[in-house]
């Protein structure tokens, strides 16, 4: 009697324990069946893609496999070697046993490698389909796990390929890149054969996503010289990106038409004097109001020109010192201003006010600044709070001038 | 009355004042209201997305990953469309094939002068692809779109892999060993006739155009030639249908049954009695093995010789695990009499056993009951020696054919006869039933290469009708009625295919009836 009750309490306890184990309830019960059906049918494709990607990234369980594949790929290149001597029959006219032997061995290796790759693909696909239909059916959670793993890998591959602005934007930079690489290519082809070139590119392609390659890559990237070299070339292609000189002051800024906003000079403003006018405009247009859509509507002589100066203060986190305004030489200056997506150097806000062009007056009494916004090393916004990848930050100082 | 009027005019007046843009005066208000309107409009656009019923019932973890996979699905869809020639515009597929041909033919020059262009172009394409992906992500697809796309991709993918998935693991092993075995010949061919690049070119084009309509038609025409079939058989080592099709073990059984059940063939003195008898067959499978130096005895055979499992006429047969009894038409069914396959320890009388020992066993040792042959399956002997490279043993299992309908059940007990399809020599068992000995003899003589109209491997529409037309002979009335029934069944199947095709069309597929029919029927045939 007592043991029975103990048992039952045990059972209860265990049941509870398992239920509250921090696992979510199975997805199968709460998902529409049509979706489950589609996902189930997609499962083989997902598994095959996942396997291919993990081989490409050298993260599968058996590291021998990608190695074997890489070796067979390099051997398969043998097939593409030209055999002009066969085509025109010169191989048979000047019979050279060594040449024939070498050629036969190469061909055999090449053909066998191609066959091996082809059959291993077929065999893998076949075994996937066989396993799915003959062994225990996958649960929805299994499918979702594979789906997420595929997505993860695709994202990693994307990041690794398009790292550090490797992407080519537009036709112009494409043509520029090709033009710059043409002499390199021609010189390279003088010294190495087509076969070696192909083998090298196959090797780079196969190893690029491996951990070792990426780790070496990152080590090199830590060297400042490498980065300077890289960005030197980078700015050749993206000229209108950062301009360090000259450092802009207010006199330069008023020349930029894009920064100046014209507002209607209304009757109510007409009789007002300096200080009251300023106050009135301040009242009409508070500092955080936006002027979007207004610039072109009232471009006549009777207008107030307003120059909204927005200076970015940039900082970088250095390991021992924390946040300082010391930046790397190839990137933007500590104080910068952005005009038409191009980043110029600018004076610090405290120096900006020293010299004001004639006819212009400060509209706001003081500089207004936002909170720090954090970004990664390429100045891509990561969030408003400090994070691990956020090693740069910037905030915007803004103050407006007006001109009647 | 006047009060009401006044009120109306008041409200209207204020309304007009607010909405009419006035330049000067109260322009701030105007601007502000304009700005507000703009904001409201933006908010409207973002908040009017209609939520699908699927979305509300799907867990967010799944829908999140699905949204992320959607662009890749679209990419996979267009790529598979190119490879399977199912895109609306087949010029893309043609272009890809041409590009492949160009790439292989002018590989040297392209790499030499345009290697960097290819590399840069690939990188550029990749970044474009990802821009495209981001665009798709921001276009806010509905979950229903995603599910539809998923189905589309799956269909195309299955179609693309259909020639692979009908192969069994054993087939692939056989294919690989055959190819490796033949590789010296390929090397010689490439030395004397054409360079290996041509092989690569032909192979690649074959794969790329496998699903194209022209390729299908060409294959179908070529398959009508026996020489082509034999060539493919020796090249791949696989019986892709058409070589030995009509002489498998089950076909033989079918013939036997028909002969027994049709009144013309049976004894005229007992009309109508034969169909009611229980018919027993002993199915015989031969297990063949070959010795590989360094490995020992395995069931991997050479491509041109018999398969690991055969019937007594050396036709390919399924292994005992996969062996399923054939399905008879309408009112007849097969049922096993023996519980499992039993090894014939005498190996069809060739091995002498002491009379005390049992003649068959269900769980033999690995080397029991074999007869050993030399490399070319000659010089049989019961003992293994150095010159013996092949061996085989015999498995048997008895099954009976039962009538399902009630009339037959009444008097089937007394008339049961045992039928045994045996090999060449008569043994005691087969002598007991004299009648079918003649039948087996005629069966043996019937061995010939018969050619089916449609091959399996080519993925063309192998319909059941063809099957029937070759196996079913026109006999007396009862048989023909069955045939009619069967044909009607086929027609219904066709109708189903038609519906499927329509569905595919709705999904943006080209209506290709070939595919939908080919795979399952191919599988069916394989089992036979």
UniProtKB/TrEMBL annotation, chain A:
<feature type="transmembrane region" description="Helical">
    <location>
        <begin position="168"/>
        <end position="189"/>
    </location>
</feature>
<dbReference type="GO" id="GO:0007031">
    <property type="term" value="P:peroxisome organization"/>
</dbReference>
<dbReference type="GO" id="GO:0005778">
    <property type="term" value="C:peroxisomal membrane"/>
</dbReference>
<dbReference type="Pfam" id="PF06398">
    <property type="entry name" value="Pex24p"/>
</dbReference>
<dbReference type="InterPro" id="IPR010482">
    <property type="entry name" value="TECPR1-like_DysF"/>
</dbReference>
<feature type="transmembrane region" description="Helical">
    <location>
        <begin position="103"/>
        <end position="125"/>
    </location>
</feature>
<dbReference type="InterPro" id="IPR052646">
    <property type="entry name" value="Peroxisomal_PEX28-32"/>
</dbReference>
<keyword id="KW-1133">Transmembrane helix</keyword>
<protein>
    <recommendedName>
        <fullName>Peroxin/Ferlin domain-containing protein</fullName>
    </recommendedName>
</protein>
<feature type="domain" description="Peroxin/Ferlin">
    <location>
        <begin position="304"/>
        <end position="370"/>
    </location>
</feature>
<keyword id="KW-0472">Membrane</keyword>
<feature type="transmembrane region" description="Helical">
    <location>
        <begin position="196"/>
        <end position="213"/>
    </location>
</feature>
<keyword id="KW-0812">Transmembrane</keyword>
<keyword id="KW-0576">Peroxisome</keyword>
<dbReference type="InterPro" id="IPR006614">
    <property type="entry name" value="Peroxin/Ferlin"/>
</dbReference>
Automatic annotation (TrEMBL), chain B:
<feature type="compositionally biased region" description="Basic and acidic residues">
    <location>
        <begin position="425"/>
        <end position="439"/>
    </location>
</feature>
<protein>
    <recommendedName>
        <fullName>Peroxin/Ferlin domain-containing protein</fullName>
    </recommendedName>
</protein>
<dbReference type="InterPro" id="IPR006614">
    <property type="entry name" value="Peroxin/Ferlin"/>
</dbReference>
<dbReference type="Pfam" id="PF06398">
    <property type="entry name" value="Pex24p"/>
</dbReference>
<feature type="domain" description="Peroxin/Ferlin">
    <location>
        <begin position="278"/>
        <end position="344"/>
    </location>
</feature>
<keyword id="KW-0576">Peroxisome</keyword>
<feature type="compositionally biased region" description="Low complexity">
    <location>
        <begin position="465"/>
        <end position="477"/>
    </location>
</feature>
<feature type="transmembrane region" description="Helical">
    <location>
        <begin position="69"/>
        <end position="85"/>
    </location>
</feature>
<keyword id="KW-0812">Transmembrane</keyword>
<feature type="region of interest" description="Disordered">
    <location>
        <begin position="460"/>
        <end position="528"/>
    </location>
</feature>
<dbReference type="InterPro" id="IPR052646">
    <property type="entry name" value="Peroxisomal_PEX28-32"/>
</dbReference>
<dbReference type="GO" id="GO:0005778">
    <property type="term" value="C:peroxisomal membrane"/>
</dbReference>
<feature type="compositionally biased region" description="Basic and acidic residues">
    <location>
        <begin position="478"/>
        <end position="491"/>
    </location>
</feature>
<dbReference type="GO" id="GO:0007031">
    <property type="term" value="P:peroxisome organization"/>
</dbReference>
<feature type="domain" description="Peroxin/Ferlin">
    <location>
        <begin position="369"/>
        <end position="402"/>
    </location>
</feature>
<feature type="transmembrane region" description="Helical">
    <location>
        <begin position="90"/>
        <end position="107"/>
    </location>
</feature>
<feature type="compositionally biased region" description="Acidic residues">
    <location>
        <begin position="492"/>
        <end position="505"/>
    </location>
</feature>
<dbReference type="InterPro" id="IPR010482">
    <property type="entry name" value="TECPR1-like_DysF"/>
</dbReference>
<keyword id="KW-1133">Transmembrane helix</keyword>
<feature type="transmembrane region" description="Helical">
    <location>
        <begin position="113"/>
        <end position="129"/>
    </location>
</feature>
<feature type="region of interest" description="Disordered">
    <location>
        <begin position="423"/>
        <end position="447"/>
    </location>
</feature>
<keyword id="KW-0472">Membrane</keyword>
